[in-house]
Queue: 4 jobs
Job 1
Amino acid sequence: MRVTKVPSTPSDPMLAVMNGVRRAEIDLADVSLFSHGTTVATNALITRNFPAAAMVTTKGFRDVIEIRDGTKDDLWDAYNDVTGPYIRRRDRFEVSERVDYAGNVVTPLDEDEARRLAALLRKRGVTTVAVCFINSYANAENEIRMRKILEEELPDATVSTSAEILPEIFEHDRFNTAVSNAVLAPLVSGYVNRLAEELNSGGYAGDLLLLHSGGGSMTPRMVKRYPVRLAASGIAAGAIAAKHVAQQCGYEDAVGLDMGGTSTDIALVSGGELRITKEWQVEYGHPIVFPSIEVLTIGAGGGSLAHIDIAGSLRNGPQSAGADPGPACYNTGGSQPTNCDANVVLNRLGTSLAGGAKTLDRSLSQEAVNRVIAGPLGMSEEEAAYAILQVANANMADAVRLISIRRGYDPRDFALIAFGGAGALHGADVARELNIPTVVVPSNPGVTSAMGCLLVDIRHDLSAMYTALASDADAEDLEEQFRTLEADATARLRHEGVAEEDSVLQRVISMRYQGQWRSLAVPMGSGKGALEEAVQTFHQQHDREFAFRQDDQPVEIYQLQLSAIGKTPKPSFVPARELMADPGAPVSERPVYFGPDGWIPTPVYDRSALPPGATFIGPAIIEQLDSTTVVPPRTTAEIDEWLNIRIHLTDFKNEQEATS
């Protein structure tokens, strides 16, 4: 395994990717698989830096994506409103057409009106269009005709239709997913195609694989059709890697803590599986309804800014110094204290990063902490820096509680997988807040998410509405519907170059008790008796999820789903056979501040020199190219056979609570 890390290039993310390849001295002609997780789509939705886009909808439904579902992220804050739609009202247009709930065409598309609208869009310079007709999930005839007219009149524009993107009933979810797909199409496909061309010109002969939010990957050919699937690409990679590391170490239950420069992504692994959700968004109120690994993201990262609010309280994030100007210690224009600066002041972080590629100025961190926090609050320099970290750790611990305790999981039964550029600095302290007994720091925490990209297969998720009582459903009709989905799935995998022997199709059926709104998805087999088995599985899963079942209540089929998987090569990991308990001599020693314990002379180890099996008692600092690990007092640590650092807490924040 070869690891390298380079600075991000916000103006053109592709440059950083190619810089990493060059820094690692990789000959692309020798590469058999290139997999990439990207935040290009996520950042585009956050910054709303979109190309000229338009939405075309049924007359009377122009404002569906603005009315939304009436909810708010903070119900009690009258001044905190939901952000506006991705496409403004003046760019949303109506045409005459109508399909009823059963799929019957009540009003054919007015083609003259459609062509006049296309001429207006051409005049406005629109480059991407979302076509969102009401009830198109039941019959997409009018949407397809509208798309063809737009493609004739606007040959250079990208057109996304809601029934193709998401053939589901709820129009707000379907419209918004299609709109997100449309605004991302030129940006994401352009970036992906440029990267693929750059790799090919460098000698790479295979397909570039892009990790998508559902935990699979797709080629640039499919990204062009479904760019919205990359909206949580980089985030999903970290969750997949956390699951892999947890299973390596024998933990079926784990929390992934991926702390980067701007944010922290938290994922839950329960029973060896990641949670999957179809209800997620980059911004509240703008749902993207594709299966996605459930990850909770908060504004806590190495670059998160510490500040004092108008009430005089210390706050941390969500504002961030970013890569430019960066923390104060970078000496690149940043003047506000960050978590990175606090770690530098406390000597938890050294003054040299990325193998000497980045030098940090401790005096600038000290000045920022004293000026912004210590002075106004009447604290000493080290007390202020430690308080900054305490607030950051409390924010992350609260987020872990949301994704665990709120769902009925006790974090004390879990291991914490801490990674990302800053995760290993904070992991043990966050675990102590939650009384989690063990922290696992992967062998290369700063690039663990990149490893996650190599652990997935090509994957597509398809669905079709199918509403009927399970007792009345026609088994042959149900089988025919699944076969239609399978034909589409097989075509997609073939389009991506997946061999037939590497293709796997998995059926899923969503059901609910008659009268319910929400549904549960359960595996669906094939052949005689498959539906009856699925109904029994539904009863069992409903009991597990909601603590009750109603076997005498009619069960209604809501939706058919299909996962199409194309197997890809995976890296092999071999555990060390020889273990050595002696960690050897530290490379240096420096005083490090540990809160109530004060300044403690702390050994500093070079992680690359630590043998598997090495054990030591905290405190200790372990430095490496891509991250720094803090092993605080009252902990023990070991290097396991997979070269992970396992930190075992020997006390907890509240001993009585931990043993109750």
Note: The longest helix spans residues 171-201.
Job 2
Amino acid sequence: MTETPPPVAKRVPTERVHHGDTVLDEYAWLATKDDPDTIAYLNAENAYTEARTAHLAGLRAELFEETRRRTQETDLSVPTRKDGYWYYTRTVEGQQYGVHCRRAVRPGETAPPVSADGAPLDGEEVLLDGNQLAAGHDFFSLGAFDVSPDGRWLAYSTDFSGDERFTLRIKDLTTGESLPDEVPDTFYGTAWSSDASTLFYVTVDETWRPNRVWRHTVGTASTEDVVVHQEDDERFWVGVELTRSERFVVIDIHSKITSEVWVIPASNPTGEPAVVAPRRQGIEYAVEHHGHRFLILHNDGAEDFALAYTSADAPGEWEPLIPHTPGTRLEAVDAFEHHLVVSLRANGLTGLRVLPVGSDDSWDIDFPEPIYSVGLDANPEYRTKEVRLRYTSLVTPDSVYDYDLLTRELTLRRQKPVRPGPDGRAYDPADYEQHRDWALADDGTRVPISLVCRRDLPRDGSAPAVIYGYGSYEASMDPWFSIARLSLLDRGVIFAVAHIRGGGELGRRWYDEGKLLAKKNTFTDFVACARHLVKAGWTASDRLVARGASAGGLLMGAVANLAPDAFTGIVAQVPFVDALTSILDPSLPLTVTEWEEWGNPLDDPEVYAYMKSYTPYENVTTAEYPAILAVTSLNDTRVLYHEPAKWIARLRSLAPAGDYLLKTEMGAGHGGPSGRYDSWREEAFVNAWILDRVGRA
């Protein structure tokens, strides 16, 4: 390894005063993105990281090649039927992005067509080629991809920097030409009118909060577009979508804890929106159209949510359909002509429940593995007797099934192939085993852990391990399969997921006990999981690496301060490590909308003191820290690049004996590199660093 000294960030004390507390931030200057000193510092950090990891170049290339070899590069998704077409996406060996296609349904064709080795389907029509759109750009991302109900128009939007500000365009699928009426600076979410004459879309305010829904008439300039709804309450976001029945355009307005939904008949796009139920503080609800009624999934007197309905013609009282059952979290309802499918979670696992219309009967779809993830896939057709679902586990590759709602039969349409690695060995799930274990938190709460490892791995503490966590926004880290992860498992590394409070794995209570003034439970739960892995003989602290991203990056910074002895290394990707500074600034993207998640430290001294007591940047000490790899992106709008940059600078200042690396993607956003090969290289970089830390490089 190089002996080159790390970069030293200049110190420019900036004073911050809140609630009588004065803080001097010596690295606040790094928030100035267009300052040449900022870019120079980030480039110097990148050069240092590259030099410090140069000895891993061969391993990185090896890991990348293992992922590439195991992936079927020329591939084709299972086609999804919508009216007279099968829609699907293809990938081509050597190309970074997908090719979006459709092919007309042929007479008598009921099952999705199959392609040999991912080759194009006979008679296919290319709707959008991501590789052509991305040509000449270092970054490319699709926001909208929305075909009109008559199949003629494609609304799509593109981002070439990673800041998630998209340019919206409309393509005529009969001619292949894009119309001149493009709209800059749009957000996610579009909806078509029934006759495809009108497109609804969303824009953001200066703080990147989606606050306006617009109506655009196809063939006109965007300067003629009309605002349909403007949300002035800074706590709320807006979204727009077309119901599966294609009867209503839905405007969804929500904060972290409160909802309001408005609808417009899709057959009358210039009509005035009508509210389904006025917002009430603390009441969340979502709407799905079904025949003469709106289905309402809500938490009014139902912590884990209940399902009700109201008239679609004159929304009023909510009539119960599925009562609240504590411990069974209802997450979504999808309506089809003769069936409802409810997505739920219970006992830490996801599930699907089927309710035939007009019957008191209902049933859950069964799956054999002890831990898994299942959910509905794209199901655009309202009148259907089959639904498409996706299934995976820590050992089972992503699998697509069609479920017959009448016969209750599951048909496997495709399991993502895992090709032999460079050693020629085929993937065999029997070579691996997955477990559900439980740690005991400081307050006596049992915290679930999901693990996967090679079946022949010794259980004597000698194996290295990676423990992953998130724990915010009620987001659940349900088990998932990863081809890149096989490179770790086959080198004897255990992979574990800590299902800590702040996530939603065990229902709404699990979330509530890891937010606001209970946020520290998230961090202590994770440390408890790490300690349990050692106590139970899975691994040892000197060969355990923690990993998390975004809010999970906040988790990484917090546990580095809380229990630095528990880990030999920490990977923090796009980490929210300067949370207090960001949440104090309402001009920043997302801040005001985040106050219901973290609290409002600007107005509440108790929240201020509590956040200051755990925010990673505020709590760096002279402790002996584990090695830290921080990865960020210059154009990230969600977690700004300067948070990890400041964090690493402060770590170097206060605990200079540590090994800290900062890697900044200079042309990407929150999700990192956009192309699949670039993403594989990024993952190979991280995994090579992990293997080096645990002595398996």
Note: Residues 676-693 form the longest helix (18 residues).
Job 3
Amino acid sequence: MQWVATRHILGNVSVRTKLLLVALVPLLTALPILFSLIFYWGLGYYDRLLTFKVSSDLTVAHEYFIHVRERIGQDVSSLGDSYRFVTTVRDDGNANLQRMLAEKQKSLDLDFLNFLDPQGRVIVSSNGKPAELIAESWPVVYSALQGEKATAIDIYSEEQLRQLSDKAAQQAYIELLNTPNAAATKKTAEKSGMVIHSATPVYDDDGKLLGVLEGGMLLNQNLSFVDTINSLVYAEGSLPEGSAGTATLFIDDVRVATNVRLFGNKRALGTRASQIVRDHVLNDGKTWLDRAFVVHDWYISAYEPISDSFGKRVGMLYVGYLEEPFRKAKETAILLLALLFIAIGIGGAYFSLRVARSIYEPLKGMNRTMTAVELGDMDARTGGVQARDELGNLSRHLDELLDTVQQQNAELKSWGNELDQKVVERTAELQQTNKLLVQAQQQLVLAEKLAAIGEITAGVAHEINNPVAVLQGNLDVLRDTLGAAVQPVQGELQLMDQQIYRINTIVTKLLQFASPGEFAGYVETVNIDEVVADSLVLVRHLLNQSRIVVVHKKEATLSVPINRGELQQVLINLCTNAIHAMKDGGKLTIVTSDWEDEKGARGVLIRVEDTGSGIRQEDIAHIFDAFFTTKRQGGTGLGLSISYTLVARYGGTITVRSEPGQGTEFTVRLLA
């Protein structure tokens, strides 16, 4: 109903109003919608792009973190497996072992190296032997005691760090700073340390466990570690001007190693992550990929949890970059896009109004002229329009039309008379064509009858030959058996010979009637496609009965020397077999083409393809055998055998390709 009302309202307004609506409504509705879609999709894609980048940055940082862990594990393992270390443990005293551990600690950039006995007690330490230090409780040490190398992240308490060295405890100590949005806490300082902890078993030459080599690197205030991550992730030029990339390592939610600045060159050690990030990463164990407030500004941030060797989430790895430059770029792009759409809208509206006016004025003039003509003023004219567009042409054509209306009326009357005469002539031609069609149909009926008689005659003739041959053979046996005693019945036997000969003569004539091509030897150069066309005419009555579509593709250019009637007989046999195979209708395709082999011989291929029931694989080897047929009724088994013989007579071949249920294709290969 609403659409009907709208049509009624529009039907009563002027063309000028309609043109203005057509010009302005799409413009003023499409532009805001387009702007909204671009704004929505653009912002969403922009945010996803920033998130994807920080996710990629976190992947790089994670891989480097894993690389450092693996390197430390490899260094400790290599030292524990070295011949020098094993001989020192086995043969030298603890003093030499301690000096060696201190030397390797420095060269491997580790914070401690300990050698433990098979019970997990520390015997020698690179920092001096600790008092009553038992390391067996660490999972990595336990794995090493069981013969497996292991490396993991572990959190050392202040007491455990002091047992390693006072320097380690001092390096781990970080005073907590008040941080906006952080979770409430009573702690005033972070005293525990995050350690990359590695242990490897040490064996003598006989495979006996001598002990365990334990080593580690303290990550608290390890500024080179986070600076290396930052340089890998945020190389120079990877961020726009004004932005800065940062990397941080957390114990719980406390920054223990970071390149985030509080002010100047002072790093934000001791500041804490916001509570929402802490809950998402440490409590829920999920990765944070979003904007987050870091110390005193908003960053596009990525946090992932860090778990220790006990499987507990004990810290976080962070990378991120300042959001402000990207936010300003986004706001600038939105503003420019809005200004661009406004400019396009104003320009488009002005242009649309001008175009609408140029359309309306010629229409107004033509409407005025047609009104005058309807009132009887046959001399009224538009006077033409200067514009060379369709409306200008229409105006000029209207004037020309009014000038020639009377002349065209007279011509129409003359054309009417001529049309009547042509109708009479066409009617006579149609009657003549109908007569020819009736004659053609009669010829087809006659051809069909002759074909049926030919099939019956061939069958009868071939069936008679067998008993006649038996009679002749028995007569010969009878003469040989009777010998001289045959004289009394010699006349009767000769009479029987004459009658058998007469039967043979009749059979020969019947075969000649059924297959006249076998007795014709005249060879001529024929056009293959013409013979195909003639053959299709002869089987058209069968085609019409079976709802079969015929496709004749004429691609052959060569002519072949052959008896035309014999080739036609071959094609009719193939087409008839194809038609019988498509009882429920189908498609008969005949394709002719040229061929040439590597020896220079050439000729024509004729492919006859149907979409019928196909031939069973076990029958394909026998289809060219005489009297072999797959037809339950009406088949003599001679058609393909005779066709094969006729083609072979001229040096050609017939091949077949068929799949049950998918149709059959016969290929006739003739020499040119």
Note: The first strand starts at residue 112 and ends at 116.
Job 4
Amino acid sequence: MTRHKKQKSSQKISNLTNTILSILKKDRNQSFNYKQIASKLGVNDASSRNQIIKKLHALAAQKEIEEFERGKFKAIVTTEYHSGILDLSVKGSGYVICDDFDEDIFIASNNINRALNGDEVEFYVYKRRKRGKMEGEITQVIKRAKSEYVGVIQVHNNYAFVIPDSNKMYKDIFVPINKINKAEDGDKVLVSLEDWPENADSPNGKVLQVLGKPGEHNTEIHSILAEYGLPYEFPHEVENFADTLDTSITAEEIAKRRDMRNVLTFTIDPKDAKDFDDALSFKILDNGLYEIGIHIADVSHYLQEGTILDDEAYERATSVYLVDRVVPMLPEVLSNNACSLRPHEEKYTFSAVFKINNKAEVKEQWFGRTVTYSDARFAYEEAQAIIESKSNNIPQEVSLTGEPYQTSPEITQAVLKLDELAKIMRKRRMNEGAISFDKVEVKFDLDAEANPVGVFFKTTKDANKLIEEFMLLANKKVAEFIGKQSPKKTFIYRVHDEPDVSKLATLQGVVSKFGYKLNFKDRKTTTASLNNLLQEVVGKKEQNLVDTLTIRTMSKAEYTTHNIGHYGLAFDYYSHFTSPIRRYPDVMAHRLLQLYLDGGKSVNEDIYEDKCNHSSNMENLATKAERDSIKYMQIRFMEDHKNEEFLGVISGVTDWGIYVEIISNKCEGMVSVRDIKDDHYVFDEGQYALVGKTTKNMYQLGDEVIVRVKNTDLVKKHLDFNLIGKKEE
């Protein structure tokens, strides 16, 4: 045997006790002989085999393992094992989130044992605590969270490595040269993990798709979608199927529906909307009540269960709204044409029709399939002009046509009355403990090549809130109608749990730095003080930070068949019924509502709970992709502003640096602690600050600072700043 080979073998054998124990513990229900262990270690020389045999007998004598049958050994299991989800940090260590414990379990990087971020893992917890934290070790991966990664490929002579974009993927992926799928050195690719041999430092993979050259706009947008396993086009057979659907409005179908074509009906949407999935109708009744219809595109009329179109819509579960494009849940023939409630067209709709008095109280309700005709289409800005001027004049600057015009007196009257009722409903909701999140949305002005030429903030005005209140009313009343039936029927609810107490305490700690006080004595005081806080920060430098932190204290809203109510809206029953063009749960709600209106029996709860879980997961991935696309566009925007100085707010503090959010455009970047040269700075967790050892100079959460762009990385979606200094008071 050569000296080199001997050296390698002896390295593998040197830590033999731990290695044997980990092999046996990993497959603790299986027994192994010395040959199987040698094979797992990748050694086959006589000396190594003898050492393995000796070590096995020694460990059995020490009662660390047992000889199950002659020559076959098994782990002695005295440890209690748990399972949970691994949340990895950028530094390589992580935490396992597990229902068996009140706190997350810290896992040091050397105890991760090939688990990756988001994986479901098995682990055990040490008897000791380390720095007050419970600590454990991962014993095996139960289920990988994902098997596909986006990264840049480095091609060598007979192999390649893919360096993943995600900073939470701590290993490069080894790709044999025959599996690079024609990728060239430096290409951005989508790679799938195939296996991770025991004795290999990196997992093995194969290139599924070449996405393009890093930094190019389409490459990066496709990379964002690929990273989360989201599609960016429809399979041909799905497109073809959609194109063959009969989308005509027939007398036969109209006869089965409530005909509301002669009632005043209109849509209010963003000015760039293509899919109008909701319309409002308004009629004054002789008894002094108002008949208000919330009409929703009847997607389930076209989307039949068991078809390839329905399977595709279910898999997608949601439309994805990236900065420069929408990846729709349904092909365009449905989303922008047949199902879109376009002006001056008859459409099949699914409606919630209410008789409402002047106090915005619902006196009667009706649910069912309808046919409607939209008399007009408004942008939010146009409806806002009606509300603000209390007249039917639409000025040129907000008009969709670019010309000033006048609406009909009936439409003006309808918009003003709906606005009045919406304000009463909103006030009532707030009094009952709803929380008012009016978070500023960042939007970009894009040129023809999708380059960001400007940033603006989308704000919510009365016209937006008018639509929101009537959509909330429909969603709530549909959920109540089914939720209160006896015997209980399976339905799709949109639920929102109470906030996490520990997160509220963290929020209290942060906002007290800005002089705000919160009272968490009970639900009423909690929501009142959160609403008060969100109102007080409007227009202040810390608004975005406080808004973001407050949203983070909230539980995630999700879909489920188990109704627990909606905390944020202060509703006991809530569903999603009003956006079936872009959300699959709304399609399911329509189908179930119709089934129960027809007297059908309750459906299988377990099947629908699985569908709810899938929908919640896909919504989560879509949200992450949307965030990444905003981050990417912000970095592209900042590339053109490299030598400018910006005023920002410190939005995060860690031991490796401070995060700064620019006030004028909400772009967030990092100042590395290594780049702050005037002192040696140390992280003070209690004060949310970096503190200079000598000068005691402090950079604290919420401080206003001046920064300049140091580096923009479109591939990693990372922005680095140089710190110029604090804003002079």
Note: The mean pLDDT is 91.
